[in-house]
Fold these 2 entries.
Entry 1:
Amino acid sequence: MYLIDTHAHLNDEQFAQDLDNVVARAVDTGVERIVVCGYDVPSSEQAVKIASRFNGVFATVGVHPHDAKNYDEQAHQRLVELSREDKVLAIGEIGLDFHYDLSPREDQFKVFDAQISLAWELGLPIVVHSRESNPEVMQVLSRHAGNIRGCVIHCFSGDEGLAREVLDAGFYIGIDGPITYKASQKLRRVVAMCPLDRLLIETDCPYLTPVPYRGKRNEPAYVKFIAEEIARIKEITIEELAEATSNNARIFFGGIL
Ligand SMILES: [Zn+2]
Ligand SMILES: [Zn+2]
């Protein structure tokens, strides 16, 4: 079995003490590739650094909507530099977050827009975060239609209608730990209707820990539990699910994985 965790924050301080063990446990579980996602400039630098240390670990660089208020010309230039590093696969995570509104919405829109344009200039796909902002995220993305190299709506939390829109736009849907929660019937319907060749699996660790470790720190090895639940919904084996989603990740990230 060959799994890929397409969205992990090994750059979070919760992994500072035992990163080697976390990566080793992932490899032991069949998670051969991990994509570490940046969310501001320091965490993007850290993602690149971690990717350089481990064979199967890659990075994305970008500024999350939470940090949009700090995005200036200097941050932009630093992202451009980082994007040229060897193992950087995408720009992300970027997007809009109206749940926390940690940055003014005006800044969130501006910074999301600037980074979508940057990704296009660089020929890189984008990893998009959307929380309580799904219509607005889709509006911004549609303004860039034809100028997006690839897009995943990571940690998808919408309904089947939104999933249809995302699929029609040619984007991928990222599924996380909540798929293992009993209450996630809406998300199960999304997985059921989503073609197998458009699904990506991700932990978003250290957050969103799947059952049976819910409540503890999440880590890439647990992407297995997400794969198991999706395989169950799709009525296929976990090996088939692993092969399909890993193949999707290779296509999405430009075959570098
Ligand atoms: Zn996110
Ligand atoms: Zn994330």
Entry 2:
Amino acid sequence: MEHTQTCSDYGKVKLMDIPYGELKTTVVGSFPLQHSIENMRRALSDQIEAGVNFPCYGQLLDMNLMFLEPLAKEKCGIDMIAGEAWITGLLEVPKRPITLEFLEFAQDYLKKNPSKEVDGIKVPITGPITLSSVTKVSEKHHAIEYPDFILDFSNIVVELAKWYDKAGAGLIMIDEPSLGYAAWLGIGPDVLIEAVNKPIKAIKSALPSFHVCGDISAVTNILIQSEAPILDHSFKDFPANLEFYSKGILEKADKMIGFGCVSSTPDPQLLLDIGAGKSQWAEAVESVNEIEKLILEGGRRFGLERLIIDPDCGFRGMEEYFKDDTGQRIATEKLKNMVEAARRARKNLEISQ
Ligand SMILES: [Zn+2]
């Protein structure tokens, strides 16, 4: 089996090959814990213990505000007004790195706690379309309604991607849950593709990935035309997504699939019952067999060698259901089972080669 050249020490930039045929595991990024250094450490160590190959530093802050607040602080044309981001001037790229401390935190942790399972650190960056969707330009309008603002945000995301890339991230994911909304608003595919391609092309050493969760039926055309080598989607809670690519299309476009195979937002009623002590938290966790079955189904559709295994989306949504760390325990158990299922599915890969 071919082996990927990976970042064995977590601070240096090395060229990262696309890991075909290895069924590597990663996460989308967020965890259901309150933001603190202690909890970031917990989120990271839980992933490492579960055996995830590209763990995230543990995104515990709001995915939009964690970028928009520092951009406002750096006077990049954004102001925070009553907790919301507003465009109040010319949108400019920050002159010095912002949010890089999250990657540095994870690199520092891994230096002190090395793990042979870890190939590199995964960093999620909220994409230009999604940042535009929550940034106001007037009382009734958001930046996402204007192609120029989306492309200005794209230039900002380019800088973020470059900094993370140079600092030695292993996998950089552009997170765009609002892609479908922008298409629905009538923003042209050319603008949307350009907005995502710019940061993707700025990544030279890390693996670039493009995450769009939920139903992708309306945007597959945009996704397949993007230059992202990894398209990352939800297949557990959105099995219809299995229909929207074929092995042939992926081969032609030379893409891998980030294969979401465990639910990041379990049934709310079940979570409420677990919170009330009426159900066991383990009931919210998919079994290894169930996950393996879905991975093999993904393999039949897309080619097992083209999959990178991860959950459907981030786990942060579970936080509101629990006063304690039950959500985190559920997330960790899901990751353990996911890693084991990937390990079992890898055997099929060896047989087919
Ligand atoms: Zn998502």
